[in-house]
RNA sequence: GCGGGCGUCGCCAAGUGGUUAAGGCAGCGGCUUGUGGCGCCGCUAUUCGGGGGUUCGAAUCCCCUCGCUCGCCCCA
């Protein structure tokens, strides 16, 4: 077992974990359908240039986290580190903007070459939304509400929505020079990372985790006060709409986000229960990106949810409250019927019956072991199935199939409910009985 | 890229220099050729992530390496 191991930062999703993924995906899909949002699927692999141009050369994602390599034609390729750039590329390349504004969602794996830690992997999964061609502040609120409502519907309490306005390019330019001026005279008080950023990306200093730097920033110039009248009005309007939707939020003056393309509204949804990597959902407006990638000037806004972090949260909340909504999501589909069978003729008949029952909509597990009956019963019990259906030589002889309720509590006291006989050649009465006595699966 | 913690069976582990590496769970087989929850019995690591060294003797000490994990940076 030493050789065939997955690469660092890659993760297998095992059968017991996939139900929760499916539950999230299906709930998300219904939210998107209701909101008139269509799915888009783009390649995992893109030309490196798309991301360096789109996300920004100076960002950490592009500078040190891209999963890049040369293909056989010596082209530089990169496994997508995020979804937005690819979606915009696809929209432009396929002329979708000619059909008007686009409301899109996507889901799938993303790749960043970083050291893994809790809530961070090299291959991870995002679920994202992009509204392209809209600049009204109502669309900001709608996009945020979409994320918020989905997370609520997944049973997540305890989330915090933080919003900020980064203003437009002009606003940021004036703020940047103010901030740099102010900080330069106090450079020695900054932590070393922030000192480096003073030259490269000074706005990022604002969300430094260093407490001394944070204390210093208390007195620094505020981004808010550099916003133009229009940007301020815009931000106020976003807030009014969020209030109208009863979505609680906090304004975080320090929220700047690490991708270069953000403009105006930026937001994050975090959970205090996640440890160091606490952001579940991040997003914002990006009104310049499309032009930057060669398209017509087009406003847009979007977000992405990190699915691994989301699932981490759901699992924590499920533990705290095993009967809550979040806990129901990881429910496993146990079979309705476990088919116990032994003997050449019986096994052939059982195979046929299993198909008929499945065609009728029942979840059926067929035991193919030809093993002793007591072994098969043990497996039936473990499978979590509600019913055991038994076919052996005796049943073939009498033409009666045996249906047993596997519910433990019924064993001794109620033999009638515990075992029934049904004709082998006409499954109608069996199916009828299964339907009318349909009970929820035991074992969650 | 930089720090901290950890690597003994599929999982959880005891063992911290002395001759056969506890135990529990799961798995398989039996008690019980055709009837499940319980019980009892048996089986399942020539080997302690890998390599090298010290020693009469190493899972236990030293060095190197690989992997996992948490944190920093940054992000979902």
Question: Would you mind describing this structure in some detail?
Answer:
This protein has 444 residues and is of the alpha+beta class. The chain has 2 domains: 18-168 and 228-328, Bira Bifunctional Protein, Domain 2 (BirA Bifunctional Protein, domain 2, 2-Layer Sandwich); 337-436, Rossmann fold (3-Layer(aba) Sandwich). It is 39% helix and 20% strand. It starts with 17 loop residues before the first helix and ends in an 8-residue tail after the last helix. The model is unreliable at 440-444 (pLDDT under 50). The structure holds one RNA strand of 76 nucleotides.
Gist of the model:
The chain has helices at 18-34, 48-55, 60-64, 84-93, 137-153, 169-184, 192-200, 211-217, 229-244, 289-292, 307-320, 325-328, 344-359, 373-383, 393-398, 415-418, 428-436; strands at 38-39, 45-47, 67-70, 76-79, 102-111, 123-132, 160-165, 250-251, 263-270, 279-285, 300-306, 337-341, 364-366, 387-391, 400-405, 419-423.
Average pLDDT level: 89
Q: Which ranges are low-confidence, i.e. pLDDT below 50, for 5 or more consecutive residues?
A: 440-444
- Count of discrete alpha- or pi-helical segments spanning 4 or more residues: 17
So what's the overall shape? elongated
CATH architecture of the largest domain: 2-Layer Sandwich
Helix percentage: 25-40%
Instruction: Please identify the top-level CATH class of the largest domain.
Output: Alpha Beta
Total domain modules: 2
CATH superfamily of the largest domain: Bira Bifunctional Protein, Domain 2
E-strand count: 16
Q: What does the largest sheet look like?
A: 8 strands, mixed
Strand content: 15-25%
Structural class: alpha+beta
Give the termini separation. Answer: 34 Å
């Amino acid at each position: 077992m030493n050789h065939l191991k997955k690469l660092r930062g890659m993760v297998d999703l095992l059968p017991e974990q996939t139900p929760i993924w499916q539950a999230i995906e299906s709930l998300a899909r219904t939210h998107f359908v209701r909101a008139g949002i269509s799915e888009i699927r783009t390649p995992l692999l893109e030309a490196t240039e798309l991301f360096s141009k789109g996300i920004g050369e100076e960002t950490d994602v592009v500078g040190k986290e891209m999963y890049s390599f040369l293909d056989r034609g010596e082209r530089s390729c990169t496994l997508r580190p995020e979804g937005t750039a690819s979606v915009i590329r696809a929209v432009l390349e396929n002329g979708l903007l000619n059909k008007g504004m686009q409301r899109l969602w996507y889901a799938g794996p993303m790749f960043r070459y970083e050291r893994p830690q809790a809530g961070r992997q090299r291959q991870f999964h995002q679920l994202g939304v992009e509204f392209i061609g809209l600049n009204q502040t109502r669309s900001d609120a709608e996009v945020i509400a979409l994320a918020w409502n989905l997370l609520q519907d997944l049973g997540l309490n305890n989330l915090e929505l933080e919003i900020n306005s980064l203003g437009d390019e002009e606003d940021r330019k004036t703020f940047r020079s103010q901030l740099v001026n102010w900080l330069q005279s106090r450079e020695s008080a900054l932590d070393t990372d922030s000192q480096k950023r003073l030259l490269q990306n000074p706005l990022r200093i604002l969300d430094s985790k260093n407490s001394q730097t944070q204390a210093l920033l208390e007195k620094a110039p505020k981004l808010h006060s550099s916003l133009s009248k229009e940007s301020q009005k815009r931000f106020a309007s976003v807030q009014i709409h969020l209030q109208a939707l009863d979505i609680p939020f906090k304004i975080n003056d320090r929220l700047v986000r690490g991708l270069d393309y953000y403009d105006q509204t930026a937001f994050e949804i975090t959970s205090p229960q996640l440890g160091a990597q606490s952001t579940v959902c991040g997003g914002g407006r990006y009104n310049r990106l499309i032009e930057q990638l060669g398209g017509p000037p087009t406003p847009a806004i979007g977000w992405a949810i990190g699915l691994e972090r989301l699932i981490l949260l759901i699992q924590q909340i499920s533990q705290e409250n095993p009967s809550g909504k979040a806990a129901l999501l990881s429910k496993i589909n146990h079979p309705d019927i476990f088919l116990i069978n032994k003997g050449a003729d019986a096994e052939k008949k059982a195979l046929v019956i299993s198909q008929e029952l499945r065609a009728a909509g029942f979840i059926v597990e067929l035991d193919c072991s030809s093993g002793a009956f007591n072994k098969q019963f043990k497996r039936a019990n473990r499978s979590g199935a509600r019913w055991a259906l038994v076919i052996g030589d005796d049943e073939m002889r009498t033409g009666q199939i045996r249906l047993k309720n596997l519910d433990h509590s019924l064993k001794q006291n109620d033999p009638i409910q515990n075992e029934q006989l049904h004709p082998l050649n006409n499954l109608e009465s069996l199916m009828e009985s299964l339907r009318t006595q349909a009970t929820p699966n035991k074992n969650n």
